[in-house]
Amino acid sequence: MENPARSFRDLVVWQKAHQLVLAIYRLTKSFPADERFGLTSQIRRAAVSVAANVAEGFAKRGKADKARFFNIAQGSLEEVHYYLILGNDLGYADCNQLSESYREVARLLNGYTRALLTPSS
After folding, report:
1. What is the pTM of this model?
2. Structural domains of the chain, ranges and CATH numbers in brackets
């Protein structure tokens, strides 16, 4: 049996979400300066929200509470996905390079949420 996570930093989903945040910060450095308070700010906030909600959910005691924060993280991740599409379509950067990271975090979030909501046998 695996050792239970002692900190949110032990969760693979948080680690991958954090890596996505760092990649988005690097990517958005190349966005136009006039987008600093627009798309750059929005995508960064949404990405940070994914990792932050996983961290906050980790600290919650009840499964329903944990699942709620993971669900909020999923919503923020979809927001990131849209902003990546928009940044790509506006020609600000090749945002498609982060699509695999997005998919990996989405898959992990779905798995964690499903595991929380599946009754134990």
Report:
1. 0.92
2. 36-116 (1.20.1440.60)
